[in-house]
Design brief:
heterodimer; A: 156 residues; alpha+beta; six-stranded mixed β-sheet; 3 helices; 6 strands; rod-shaped; B: 197 residues; 2 domains; four-stranded antiparallel β-sheet
Chain lengths: 156, 197
């Protein structure tokens, strides 16, 4: 009778150990899955902000280039760009609601390398997601287009 | 007396049988719970493995990169002659694929023909952008008659995991080679891998 009880206790213990093992395995799996989904939702969020920012830049009169009244998308006027990047931090504050959690810089790569910091507060923190989009740059005085890209950094 | 004893024995046997039956039922319920638990875990695992988000936003960004690259590149002044942009250089290349370009275009210090010059400039542009951003690509230009006239502009990158990379995006920009509109060349940029067309 005593031996049978001991056997029963042993059996129960094995079941509890297996159950605990399954529970721990499930928990680890769940936590890992959650971490991945949080990471991917952060990335999706950053993607969304980047898409919005690209579209805003394409239609932003402060940057857009127009030739004889015709607006050219995917093109930035170099003179407008220089003026915008030279604005004081205080004046750039009006773009805060338009470009949240974002830093925007512009790089011309052809024919020569040039760089402008257009917008972005130094105090922005968070995980950085980088979205570079090619753009053409128009020099109105020389009537020439150059090549480069807009680099959008989203902090989530 | 003997009958009473027999009856007692029979009822004991019934009790043992009933007890065993109950024990069996409990065990079946236990097994059922385990099966349900394992099924739930399996379902969860399968959902996480195959139910990945298609990530349409990433695809949108990739197609924006491809279309913006081609659009901006075509607008860019070639510096081949003062007023020629890359579009004109590529059209000249497509018009004269066998000779590598017309005699009108003598580009750069070496007086390169349009096809060679376009290939060189576009390679530089791709190296400064997509290659730096570690995005695999393939770029090629198809002329109406001769087939592919600019090729071998590609970059492959092996991603560390499946979340880092994204699927292939193919962007095709048709360009009219002459005013008749019958002859059309194609500028093809695949981002995210090597072209399948």
């Amino acid at each position: 009778m005593k031996k049978q009880s001991q056997m029963k206790i042993g059996e129960s213990m094995v079941i509890i150990i297996i159950f605990l093992f399954l529970l721990v395995f499930g928990l680890v799996f769940y936590v890992k899955y959650k971490l991945i989904s949080v990471e991917s939702s952060a990335k999706e969020n950053a993607n969304l902000i980047a898409i919005q920012t690209v579209q805003k830049i394409q239609f932003l009169p402060e940057l857009q280039c127009s030739i004889e009244g015709t607006i050219n998308y995917n093109c930035i006027d170099i003179y407008k760009l220089a003026s915008l990047s030279e604005l004081s931090e205080e004046k750039k504050g009006v773009y805060e609601s338009m470009f949240p959690k974002t830093k925007i810089s512009v790089k011309q790569t052809y024919p020569t390398y040039l760089e402008w910091d257009v917008y972005g507060k130094a105090s922005i923190t968070g995980n950085k997601h980088l979205f570079p989009i090619p753009f053409a740059f128009y020099n109105t005085t020389a009537n020439q287009h150059y090549f480069g890209y807009v680099e959008i950094q989203v902090f989530i | 007396m003997m009958k009473i004893k027999n009856n007692k024995n029979i009822s004991n046997v019934h009790r043992v049988v009933a007890l065993n039956k109950k024990k069996g039922q409990v065990e079946i319920v236990g097994l059922l719970i385990i099966v349900i638990m394992i099924s739930i875990i399996l379902l969860f695992a399968l959902k996480s493995m195959f139910g990945q988000n298609k990530n349409t936003q990433s695809k949108y960004i990739q197609s924006t990169i491809a279309s913006s690259f081609v659009g901006s590149m075509l607008n860019t002044n070639s510096l081949c002659t003062k007023d020629t942009n890359m579009e004109k250089v590529l059209i000249d290349c497509a018009k004269h694929p066998t000779t590598g370009g017309s005699t009108e275009f003598k580009c750069g210090d070496d007086g390169m023909k349009s096809c060679e010059f376009a290939g060189l400039i576009i390679e530089g542009m791709l190296n400064d952008t997509l290659k730096v951003w570690k995005r695999p690509y393939e770029f090629k230009v198809k002329s109406p008659e001769e087939g592919i006239i600019i090729e071998n502009l590609h970059f492959n990158y092996t991603f560390k995991n499946e979340f880092e990379g994204s699927s292939l995006t193919t962007f095709v920009q048709p360009l009219q080679v002459d005013t008749s509109g019958y002859r059309t060349m194609e500028i093809i940029l695949c981002v995210g891998g090597i072209c399948e067309i």
